[in-house]
Design goal:
With 91 residues, the protein is α+β, with helices and mostly antiparallel strands. It has a single domain, classed as 2-Layer Sandwich (Alpha-Beta Plaits). 27% of the residues lie in helices and 36% in strands. It has a 5-stranded mixed sheet, with helices on one face. It is globular and about 30 Å long.
């Protein structure tokens, strides 16, 4: 079953390669979408793929890569659109 999650990761995540580690994990799980830093210090991402794979990405976001201190993750479940052909890091 396909799923889509719009995720916001809070606190102390920038500067620890969070976006690139997220991209690596997304490729491993065959998830499409994107990830980017927000000006307020959060990281925003959209994950689309098989539900289990999207849930694995959300779980990764709850911890982040080594050096990240994640204090919270907000998840908005949305209808999958199939609009992405790969996973990208946005700037």
């Amino acid at each position: 079953m396909k799923a889509r999650a719009h995720v916001f990761v809070r606190e102390f995540v920038q500067g620890v390669f969070f976006r690139y580690e997220t991209r690596t994990k997304a490729l491993q799980h065959k998830v499409t979408g994107w990830v980017k830093n927000l000006r307020d210090g959060r990281v925003e991402a959209v994950f689309e793929g098989e539900k289990e794979a999207v849930e694995a990405m959300i779980d990764f976001c709850r911890h982040g890569p080594p050096g990240a201190t994640v204090t919270g993750v907000d998840v908005l479940w949305e209808e999958p659109t199939g609009e992405f052909d790969r996973f990208r890091v946005l700037y």
